[in-house]
Amino acid sequence: MESVEISVIVPVYNVEAYIEEAMVSLLDQLTAGVEVIVVDDGSPDGSIGLVRRVLERYPQWRDQVRIVTQRNAGVSAARNRGIALAEGRYLAFLDPDDLLLKGYFEALGAVLREHPEVEVVGFNAIYFTHSERGEPRGTRALDIHREPRHYRAGAPDAEARMAQVIHSGQWYVWAGLYHRRLFDGREFDRTLSMFEDAMLIPELYLAAGEIVCLDRALLGYRINPSSAVNSVAERQLDDIRRVIARYRELVRAHRGEQRSNHALSVFCGLVRDYHFTLQRRYPLRRAVEMMRGEFALLIEGRPDLDQALADHLAGLEFKRRSLFRHPYLYNLSKRLALQLRALSRGQRPRIA
């Protein structure tokens, strides 16, 4: 096989119902210079058998696909194993219940040709509920990047561009292509059961010398009712609190530097996600109190951060700012909007 440009890492555990479609979406558009590393995380079902059967239909790619097996250690350990084995200059990630959309490698290859020094390529995705013959159905947009962005360290407007890039506050490992240099000394935290992406991916962005963001969807993210992200246990809330604490400390430690401002943007995005996650477990009043508690920890004993936070919130668009400043009104307006949408579709609105 010729030199490897991109390594795609696919962790596999108990995904017998979905892995065939995921692999087909990948192998249908595989190209020279791309390797695939399938990490069997001790899956007890027939997932890996299905992977092997799919590979039999693509003999031309046999030398570009590796299957490695380990004892069950979780998705972070599986991804870390794939990273350690990868030979590509760039790393991409596909979860085994998701789909690569058509044109994935074509779009990424075009960016790499135009920006040979790029270190992160971010892109959008779509949510989907089911699929028919490998095509996503029940879709809606996941617009992480609402317009194309380009950041290069050292440019006159570099800090403003970085602020725009990280403003979305949505940190999914599968929504990007990453130079392997960024993983030197970094890996996914094996002790996190959720939000392992949010712990690591912002750091990759902040460490990158050049970033290109596409406003194009390249991946389909399956909304799976049995997925861990659709149920909330206290341990999972502990995980996101750990991630928030990590970026809170970055803000406090680097005050006066641009790194602190960017970390503050990440922090606020994580607190927003925390609030929405809390609402799936607690009444609204409790969720609001816990969200405000995170801000209190940020500014505790630091009047300089109190002002920095106020300045940051003032710069947010109205919808996002209102969540933090007027959470009860925000949630009321959101509930009314959902009820109006249901009425417009001829459905009976839920009264909560």
From TrEMBL:
CDD domains: Glyco_tranf_GTA_type. SUPFAM superfamilies: Nucleotide-diphospho-sugar transferases. Pfam families: Glycos_transf_2. GO terms for molecular function: hexosyltransferase activity. Signal peptide: none annotated. InterPro entries: Glyco_trans_2-like (IPR001173), Nucleotide-diphossugar_trans (IPR029044). Residues 7-139 form the Glycosyltransferase 2-like domain. PANTHER family: GLYCOSYLTRANSFERASE, UDP-GLCNAC:BETAGAL BETA-1,3-N-ACETYLGLUCOSAMINYLTRANSFERASE-LIKE PROTEIN 1. This is Glycosyltransferase 2-like domain-containing protein. The lineage of its organism: Bacteria, Pseudomonadati, Pseudomonadota, Gammaproteobacteria, Oceanospirillales.
